[in-house]
Design goal:
Strand order of the largest sheet: 3-4-6-5
Strand content: 5-15%
CATH superfamily of the largest domain: Ribosome-recycling factor
CATH architecture of the largest domain: Orthogonal Bundle
Structural class: alpha+beta
Helix content: 55-70%
Number of helices: 4
Shape: elongated
CATH topology of the largest domain: Topoisomerase I, Chain A, domain 4
Number of domains: 2
């Protein structure tokens, strides 16, 4: 029984981590290197992540900087950023790229909040699916007489407690991200 609970907790924790990973990619008007993580650059015929062809850093709250390791990569990186269609317009000085991160307007903020809520709902569904799978497994064990009815009810209670904790964690994470997005 403890193995089932442990497995359920592990799977629920993975759902939370996936949510946090998705939310970290949503920009809040502040410059962060995560904003460029999805960009792939043509490096001698291979598509590689941007951070493998240059140093990506944050200059200030509204500016990112890219210093390519090879000077000829400046135009390639510039083109890749524009093609990624993230709303960034890189400024090149010949050896480096500066990327101003434009502030978000009210409409875009509201769209991002909707997206955050969608990710949150998907995470909650994943948590509930883990609960359902675990409870089905517990009931199967009880039918096969591997545990008593009391043990089954205790285990189901523990799974529900775990589910509630993870749903609350998702809600807290979403509130924090929404506040961050709506902050001007």
């Amino acid at each position: 029984m403890h193995e089932l609970i442990k497995d359920a907790k592990s799977r629920m924790d993975k759902s939370i981590e996936t949510l946090r990973s998705e939310l970290s990619k949503i920009r809040t008007g502040k410059a962060t290197t995560v904003l460029l993580d999805s960009i792939k650059v043509d490096y001698y015929g291979n598509m590689v992540p941007l951070n493998q062809v240059g140093n990506v850093s944050v200059l200030d709250a509204h500016t990112l900087s890219i210093t390519p390791w090879e000077k000829q990569m400046v135009q390639v990186i510039d083109k890749a950023i524009l093609e990624a269609n993230l709303g960034f317009n890189p400024i090149s000085d010949g050896t480096n790229l500066k990327i101003p991160v434009p502030p978000l307007n009210e409409e875009r903020r509201k769209e991002l909040v909707k997206l955050v809520k969608k990710f949150g709902e998907e995470a909650k569904i994943a948590i509930r699916n883990v609960r359902r799978d675990t409870n089905d497994h517990i009931k199967r064990e009880e039918k096969e007489k591997k545990m008593s009815e009391d043990q089954m009810h205790d285990a189901e209670g523990e799974v529900q407690k775990l589910t509630d904790e993870h749903i609350n964690l998702i809600d807290d994470t979403l509130k924090h991200k929404e506040k961050e997005i709506m902050e001007v």
